[in-house]
Amino acid sequence: MENQNTQQNEQHHRSIKSFVLRQGHMTAAQQRAIDENWEKVGVNFQAAHIDLNALFKRNNPKILEIGFGMGVATAQIAQTLPEKDFLAIDVHGPGVGNLCKLIAEQNINNIKVMRHDAVEVVEQMLPENSLDGIHIFFPDPWHKKRHNKRRLIQIPFIEKLLPKLKSKGYIHLATDWEEYATQMLDVLNHFEALQNTAQDYAPTPAYRPETKFEARGKRLGHGVWDLIFTKK
User: Fold this and answer.
1) Residue 218: pLDDT band by 50, 70, 90 thresholds?
2) Rounded CA gap, 218 and 200, in Å?
């Protein structure tokens, strides 16, 4: 039985993914933005640690963003916080193209973009104690109960993230699904190394703009919940 449980746990760890592949139409402008700007703003996956300070050519706070959608909020946050550097990861081609386009149009210098599974990036590319913050805004809620196990914010994934976060670094999550917010709160409360900055859910920080997902949720009558925990 012990061997069976170990195998099941290992299988669960291997099955964590930060994304679900969906078909999406890449516009000519989005593809052109990738082709013309990737050498400057893109980061290719490698199965070895990277030096984030060398990547951004400065020793400033580093923020990991997982799942940036079309990149509009990411671009706004980076411009609001120019003293911080952002490694933004997504697998959705049109979103990657759109963020590359925004970076070029708005002359943003503190974002690097990756198109890869964020779980593999966290596991293989990010050194321990290399991040000052982690942003995961509106991950897929998988709202049907039978699909809840596919959610990104679960204990095994946070276990992978925590060693990469510096002491006093933070994790900022946001969702417009109340049941997922409850799960997120339970997951983060599980870790003694994390401390909630609020009694439960935090006020939305000024740096996080309203995303299209948030606006959609509000139109549907959903609330929005932010969670901000710091590493002790």
Assistant:
1) confident
2) 20
Per the CB < 8 A criterion, the answer to whether 99 and 30 are in contact is no
- From the list 90, 140, 176, 226, the catalytic residue is 140
Q: List beta partners, residue 65.
A: 88, 135
Cα separation, 143 vs 10, in Å, equals 25
Q: What is the pLDDT of residues 89-103, one digit of tens each?
A: 999 999 999 999 999
Neighbours of 205 (CB within 10 A): 14
pLDDT in tens, 143-170: 888 878 889 999 999 999 999 999 999 9
Q: How distant, in Å, are the alpha carbons of 31, 121, 125, 132, 165 from that of 48?
A: 28, 9, 5, 20, 18
- Alpha-carbon torsion (148, 152, 156, 159), positive or negative: negative
Tell me, yes or no, whether 204 lies in a domain: yes
pTM for this prediction: 0.88
Is 200 a domain residue?
yes
136 domain-assigned: yes
Domain of residue 183, residue span: 48-231
Known active-site residue 140? yes
Q: Is the backbone of residue 67 left (phi > 0), alpha (psi -120 to 50) or beta?
A: left
Query: Dihedral of CA 66/71/75/80: which sign?
Result: negative
Asked if residue 142 is part of any domain, the answer here is: yes
CATH code of the domain in which 180 resides: 3.40.50.150
**Separation of alpha carbons 42 and 15, rounded Å:** 26
